[in-house]
Amino acid sequence: MQQIKIPIKNAVSFSSRLKGLMGKTNINYGMYFKNCNSIHTYFMKEEIDVIGLNLQNEIIFLEQNVKPNKIIWIHRSLKKTSILELPKNTSSHLKIGDKLFFEFEDII
Asked: How far apart, in whole angstroms, are the C-alpha atoms of residue 99 and residue 78?
């Protein structure tokens, strides 16, 4: 199993969930959105990788280098999904079905 460590911030407050990585440049960390099945990249300054996860943190959706001004729906009928936004090209070694493990820094 390949292990890659990248800081992950857990978006727990309304404002952190609303803002996400908007307006950021030189992104060097990820943002985790629990119980979320869609995101947008409006007002993003850079491309990002987007990962959709099920309740077991298995990858069910993976899109690399998502450009600004896009809307991403992971799965409209699944309510218990989570989304991980990562710096572009960070997820190139991942695939659907991989399981991820996290240590979070909560954003308030």
From this structure: 18
Q: Is 1 contained in some domain?
A: no
Q: Are strands 59-66 and 48-53 parallel, antiparallel or unpaired?
A: antiparallel
Whether 26 is in a domain gets the answer: yes
CA distances from 65 to 38, 62, 81 (A): 16, 10, 21
- Please state the pTM of the whole predicted model: 0.88
3-state percent breakdown (helix, strand, coil) of the chain, nearest 5: 5, 35, 55
Tokens at residue 69, please?
């001004």
- Determine which helix (DSSP H) or strand (DSSP E) holds 16, and give its type and residue range: helix 14-19
Domain hosting 57: range is 8-61+69-107
Write out pLDDT tens, residues 70-106: 999 887 666 689 999 999 999 999 999 999 987 766 6
